[in-house]
Each structure stands twice: as C-alpha cells, then as structure tokens.
Specification:
371 residues; alpha/beta; Rossmann fold; three-stranded antiparallel beta sheet; 11 helices; globular
C-alpha cells in the first residue's frame, strides 16, 4: 500500500494518524467536512501537513466517497459524530450510513482496497464486565434512574442486590446502551461482515478514552483532560460526577495512532476487533488530582452529587489481544497530561467552556442531581 485515505483526518485521532502515516512513508489523502463544534467551519487546521491531499466532503455523501476513494489502496475511517445530544438519528446518519456508503462504493466499483480500518469504541461495552462474589462473570444492565437518585452508584447483582466488582473488559461481549455506542457497533458489524463477504480485509478498533493535543476545546465529548485543565487553569475546581470513584482507562493519541498503523499493515488483524487502551485503571478523582499536580495548581475537585444520565460506572479495557500483535501503550499518564497542557495553554481559544456546556446538558436532562 502506498496511498491511504483517512476519513476524518483533520480531527483529533485522524490528524495524529496522518502524521504517523507520513512518517512511515505513505501518501495520504484526507476526507473531512470540517464541521463545528470540533472545527471552525470550513477552516483547515494549521496542523494539517501541506503535503497531504485534502478533500472537503461529508461521509454521508456517496459522491464524496467516490472521489476520495479513487486511487487509494487503504482506508482508515475515523470520521464520526459524537455528542450527548438526543438527536438519535444523526448518530446513525453519520456513523452507520457513512460506513455503509464506504463499503457500498468499494463493492460497486470493485476498488482494489487492500485494507479498511474502522474506528469503533469502548462505549459498545455498556456497563462492561463485572464479577460476582463467587467469581462468576456478569454483564449488568444500565443502572436504573431510581438507584442513581439515591446516590447508589455501583451496579448491583440482579439476584442478590449486592454491589459487583469491576473487571478488565475484553472483546468477548458487547452491550451498547446509547445512540453513540449503537451506531459505533453497527459500523463495526458492517466492517467485519461486509469485509469477509466481499474479501475486503477490515479491522475494527475499540478505542478507550483517547487523550492528547489537538482535542477540540468546544466538543463536549472530548473528555476530562480538556475539561479539568480548562477549569484548573482558569482558577476553578474541576467537577466530578457521581462520587468521582468511577474507574476509567485513558490512552495517549500517539499510542492510538501507532495501533492504527499496526493493524493497517498486519494481516493477522484482518476481520478482527481490538481494544485500544492505556492498560491502567484510574478513578476520575485521581485524574483530577493528577492534572492539578502537573499544572501546579492547588485546587481540589468538587463532587456535587450530580450524574450524567446514561453514563457507565466503570470501564477499563483488556488490551492483551492487541498486545499479541506486538503493540504496547508507551506514553505514561503523566506524559499525556504534560504534553496536553503544554499545547493547550498556547492556543488562543483556550478558556473554560464548562459552564456553558453544563447549562446545555442540564437543559437537555443529561446532567441530573441525585436526591
């Protein structure tokens, strides 16, 4: 393969993947619609290298795919819609239909595509993997609203009512429970099913919480590193939902880009799904304290007893399957935070966006107050 198309290549993960592809000697074409709030409408980010061929287009537009796929030999499909908004259909229009059109064009035109890598998500696991007291594995349902109103945050065993113990979540079982995760899983199903049927080698990447420079300041979905950094460096306390003891799994965007290139090149990854995570367990409170420490700011996080409707309690990915291909996360959590802070404070639009985002999410019923 010499020329690779990166759909969503002007975005966060996409741009770092483009950098890694160029460094490895590939020619790169980007397809991106440069849509707000992630982008300033129609403006190509300064970090997009000049040697990249840029095509403005939407993955929901079949003609855009037809033009973008001409002359390429591989595809890394990272374009996606992410938000907490209840505009359910848009998730499927962008994520599901966009991926269907990719395979539709490849099949219709009999294009010589040697590999497709599709972005899936850790979100497809829902409440993820837990164990009962006797060690038996259980995948609990989403926590009931009545339970959360009572500040009972842990998933409960449906038989005994006792709290369950979270475990490393491997690729074996998926239980998507919101519009985003369902749309991502349908992307994955199409990639692996259409890929096998039409002999288009394909791989799905289930990213954990990806962190690093170039994350949009205006995207509500871009994670706590952005939110907590903006709060702390503007003299305000970061806000932790529930009790702040949710366990999460953070991975560097540099490690994610390396994983994308690995599966693009490795035939062992054909028709497989892989977790891509940081191989560590970190509570939200621990992360808030770490960011404050690295930013040299003495402000403790607030825990006001709010929760986000539909949130997962604990999820941290088992990455042994990807490790079997020779990949390992290389960037420490301290390095992730330091690199992000160095970049973020130098940006002209770096400020605290949390208050306005919070108001919007409260108005939509996404953020709720426990009783």
């Amino acid at each position: 393969m010499k020329k690779i198309l990166v759909a969503g290549g002007a975005g966060f993960i996409g741009s770092h993947t483009v950098d890694a592809l160029l460094k490895a000697g590939y020619q790169v074409r980007i397809l991106d619609n440069l849509t707000p709030p992630v982008h300033v409408a129609g403006q190509i980010p300064a970090y997009v290298p000049p040697e990249v061929e840029f095509m403005l287009g939407d993955v929901r537009d079949k003609s855009a795919w037809e033009k973008a796929l001409a002359g390429v030999e591989g595809v890394i499909h990272l374009a996606a819609y992410q938000d907490y908004l209840p505009d359910f259909s848009k998730f499927f229009h962008v994520n599901t239909v966009g991926t269907a059109l990719l395979y539709e064009v490849i099949v219709e035109q009999k294009l010589p595509i040697q590999k497709v890598v599709v972005a899936s998500s850790q979100a497809i696991y829902g409440e993820a993997k837990y164990r009962r007291e006797d060690g038996a594995v259980i995948y609990p349902e989403i926590r009931p609203e009545a339970q959360l109103r009572k500040h009972l945050w842990e998933p409960l065993d449906p038989e005994t009512g006792e709290p369950l113990t979270p475990d490393w979540t491997d690729e074996a079982e998926v239980r998507p429970h919101n519009q985003y995760s369902m749309s991502k899983y349908t992307q994955e199903m199409m990639a692996l099913t259409f890929g096998k049927r039409y002999q288009i080698p394909s791989t799905a990447m289930r990213y954990s919480i990806v962190q690093g420079r170039r994350q949009s300041f205006r995207n509500a979905y871009s994670g706590v590193l952005r939110i907590f950094s903006q709060r702390l460096l503007n003299g305000r306390a970061p806000v932790c939902y529930e009790d702040g003891l949710q366990i999460r799994d953070y991975v560097s965007v540099y490690d994610v880009a390396r994983a994308n290139l690995l599966v693009l090149q490795d035939e062992r990854a054909h028709y497989q799904s892989y977790n891509v995570g940081g191989d560590r367990q970190v509570t939200v409170l621990e992360y808030a304290h770490l960011i404050a420490e690295r930013a040299n700011v003495d402000i403790a996080p607030e825990v006001p007893g709010q929760y986000r409707f539909g949130d997962t309690r604990h999820v941290f990915s088992d990455v042994d399957k990807l490790k079997s291909l020779g990949w390992r996360p290389q960037v420490s959590l301290n390095e992730i935070v330091d690199d992000y802070l160095e970049w973020a404070v130098a940006q002209p639009d770096f400020r605290d966006y949390y208050a306005e985002a919070e108001k919007q999410m409260q108005a939509l019923g996404t953020i709720r107050k426990a009783g």
